[in-house]
Here is the input.
Amino acid sequence: MIGAAIGTLGGFGGGLVTAVSQGSQQRRQRQIDRELRLEEARRNAYSECISTSKQMSAAWWKLAASLRIETSTEEQWREPAADAHAAWASFSSAVAEVTVVGPAFVADAADALRRAMYALDMAGTAWHDAARRAGAGRLEDFDAQYMRAVEAKRVPGRSFQAAARRALQAES
Here is the structure.
């Protein structure tokens, strides 16, 4: 009888240890899965932010190139202007996604990039609006303002990429 009791207690104890161990293992696996999903979400958000910033820059470059052609017309500016304005919406959405997935230092870098890209958008918009009013795109002051905005976005762009690499532990 005592042997049976010891056997029962031993079996119960072993089962308890196994159950606790399995529960701990399952919690650890859920944590690992969560971390992997977060890393993937961050990688996708960072990539989208970089991609849309490049698309927005390219759209503005296309419009700027068109505005610089002395014989270009408002009709020729219409499509590149629409593309440049549409690019802002995609980029802004991508920055919002980065803000959600974080971490904070990457969200801050994305916000700095957003502010620089907004300045680019405003400089390009001002140039395009002035060109439409003047009936000519070669407006040196607006071109110079646009180029200052182009230059000003370079550091925030590199800073965002560096922050993204750090968050993803991709620094070597």
